[in-house]
Please model this.
Amino acid sequence: MLNRAPTLHRLGIQAFEPVLIEGKAIQLHPLVCTAFNADFDGDQMAVHVPLSLEAQLEARVLMMSTNNILSPANGKPIIVPSQDIVLGLYYLSLETPEFRGVADKDAPAFGQPGDIEHALHARAIGLHDKIKARWESIDANANPVRELVVTTPGRMMIGQILPKHPEVPFSLVNRQLTKKNVSDVIDAVYRHCGQKECVIFADRLMSLGFGQAAKAGISFGKDDLIIPEEKEGLIRRTQAEVKEFEAQYQEGLITAGERYNKVVDAWSRCTDEVAGAMMKEISRQESGKATNSVWMMSHSGARGSPAQMRQLAGMRGLMAKPSGEIIEQPIIANFKEGLSVLEYFNSTHGARKGLADTALKTANSGYLTRRLVDVAQDCIVVEEDCGTERGLSVRAVMDGGEVVASLAERILGRTAARDVLDPASGEVIIPANTLIEEETADHIEQAGVEAVQIRSVLTCEAPIGVCAHCYGRDLARGTPVNIGEAVGVIAAQSIGEPGTQLTMRTFHIGGAAQRGAEQSFVEASHDGRVGVKNRFVVMNSQGTPVVMSRNCEIVLQDDKGLERARFRVPYGARLLVDEGQLVARGQKLAEWDPYTLPIITERNGQVEYIDLIEGVTLVERMDEVTGLTSKVVVDYKQGAKSVDLRPRLQLKDERGEVLKLPNGADARYFLAPDSIL
Model:
């Protein structure tokens, strides 16, 4: 048995069958490195030998690396190829402009896999050319099936190692294989062909990936990092914007805080735009030219992220001080151009803080795991079914118009608490107390069900521990959970493990400011008809409706009247569309200033100050830079006097009586400390 410290989850210790080798270093299978979080820069591992027969049996059945294919945290495969292997498979399945330029009927046809290999050796075809080939598989009754597929020789090589099964079609590998796609392929093979086939397939995939990565000869050169031509223009434009904010501040139109926020915002947006231009430039494929190797590494998921590429070839952007504040002056250069002395000095802040944080926080997150295990350890599966009627209602998680987690993802592997009905026909898709499998989950989502009642451990009525029905699927095995499984400890480890990983990740970014540009508008994510919920608006001087309610939402409906997206609109936002209006995708629906909280009235009248006393609750502050004064409400409670003052504005009519709001309350507006009149 091998164990690597820190053992953050149960896959940190696994059993292997030893193979005798030359040399003094332990050689580890590359595919289990993800589970151990190991790399080859001198990691140390502890070796244990199970002595008794029972121990050997237990190690072989429960701890063998071949029995731990799925992660207990999320049920996805954990023996997924990474780095070189992913790069090799990505290169093998690459889609080039030449491929798209050839019509299907003009592609050469091959009958046998041997013929393709022969043609490749003779250089008659390239690895990425379009060909027609015969794909042989089996149907549900194990009879051989043949079909003609349009593909590339590279993808055909991956297809050759795919197990033959009706549920594992060639289309799984007949596409550009990124790390996520490879994970999906392994998942499908595991679900349909079983564990043994899956392990053999993963091993072959690994050999193929390594071999092809070596043959591809992909390198990382300085000239592969392309700096976009638009960069200078974008930077000039942003510098002009910053000058404009400075001028507004000097004239007293905005406060120092607003100016700072606007400057930081402008530079964040500029950094993102430069990064976007760089990604567009670097990912462009031209016929006759090799695909950019740095882009291939990043896009395949082998190594590197857009954030790292941005620092190499875009601009480093804003840096954070150790206190977490953001330095206004961004780093305009990137690592390829080289940093000036001042820029370098500004970046040392963040880099040093990253290293210090990593040392300090690792202990904290380890301690968190320990406390989580402590509270959750007596949560064990004790019975098959507690017989409860209760459950939770689950729906897809939406953020604006984007689906963050689909309904199918959220209900997969859970037990239905009530019958799930088809909204159109009213027939039962799945009866209560049944485990929801992949097919059922997809069926429920396609039927257009909004929300599903599922059993949950939160509503389980077992007197001690939880019951198997409320828990659902054991993610590490893909089967219903067994009685006696320590689900509490698994849950605690699943939360604690990524926590520790995230701490380690801080210093990889190297202190670049994490804050993006604040959201200041919403735009339509689909075509559709607008509905405004809780609509309460007042017209401003330009005749634009301004939102007055705190819980206003814009809903987009398609032509069938189904809700496609829902957006929160903050108080004080300007509505650009109204009830019943048709909008196109990408059209702005509302906009607002994210850095000011306005106090707006919906009545006309005369303002009266109440409890606004000069020098007590109201002071005139003079800005040292601009020399302009502004009236600011201060927190009077800091004074020693025990007077009860509530600074507020109230509106009166011509007769001097307090105006009423539409809801019947008096038109009074309480002012928080630091309000500017």
